[in-house]
Amino acid sequence: NIVLPLGNGFNLPEKPQKTLLVGGGVGVAPLLYLGKKLKENGSEVVFLLGARSASDLMQIACFEEFGKVLITTEDGSEGERGFVTQHSVWQNNFDKIFSCGPTPMMKAVAKLAQEKEIDCEVSLENTMACGLGACLCCVTDTKEGHKCVCTDGPVFNIKELKW
Ligand code: FES
Q1: Percent of the chain at pLDDT exceeding 70
Q2: Mind listing the pLDDT tens digit for each residue in 74-92?
Q3: How far is the CA of 125 from the centre of ligand 1 (A)?
Q4: What does the pLDDT read at residue 24?
Q5: Would you call 154 helix, strand, or coil by DSSP?
Q6: Is the overall model pTM greater than 0.70, yes or no?
């Protein structure tokens, strides 16, 4: 059985924007559909995907259908060596950043976005059991108190979070 839809999603901009989509690990996957929707609304899409090594990167051609793909790997086997936050693309300006991946990565992305005063949404990967707001195992601390990532998220604007 499947229960859907649950939670919220990324907010698509009303007007076309220059967007940077930053993903790491399994967090790369949801950025593909987001990139497709952003391209459909006329936005410029740049994917910045991070992995430990080239062998951890999958289906890059699918992402290239919707935007420019930039890569960082920790061992330097593909793209620029290092973490996504160290990529040279950060020298450019963007209207909006979307991110999904490990929490330390998203926190580092959020810090850069704050420094550059770029609006930023992140999709949290907290552990979830029920998905319906009943078990409270997924709560995250926000400026308005604890919120369930499964029902109030998983997408939050970084302005809402206590990061
Ligand atoms: Fe149970 Fe969120 S997963 S309350």
Answers
A1: 100
A2: 999 999 999 999 999 999 9
A3: 12
A4: 95
A5: coil
A6: yes
Question: Ligand 1 site: residues with CB under 6 angstroms?
Answer: 128-131, 133-138, 148, 150
Question: Strands 18-24 and 96-100: what pairing?
Answer: parallel
CA 97 to centroid of ligand 1, rounded, Å = 26
> For a substitution probing ligand 1, which of 3, 8, 124, 135 has the most ligand atoms within 8 Å of its CB?
135
Residue type, position 76, single letter: G
Q: What distance lies between CA 112 and its chain's CA centroid? A: 13
Residue-wise pLDDT tens digits, 31-62: 999 999 999 999 999 999 999 999 999 999 99
H/E element, 107: helix 103-116
Estimate to the nearest angstrom the gap between the alpha carbon of 151 and the chain centroid: 18
Instruction: Tell me the C-alpha to C-alpha distance, in Å, between residue 2 and each of 6, 83, 131, 152.
Output: 10, 36, 11, 20
77 CA to middle of ligand 1, Å? 38
Atom of ligand 1 nearest to the CA of 127: 3
**What is the distance in A from the centroid of ligand 1 to the CA of 87?**
35
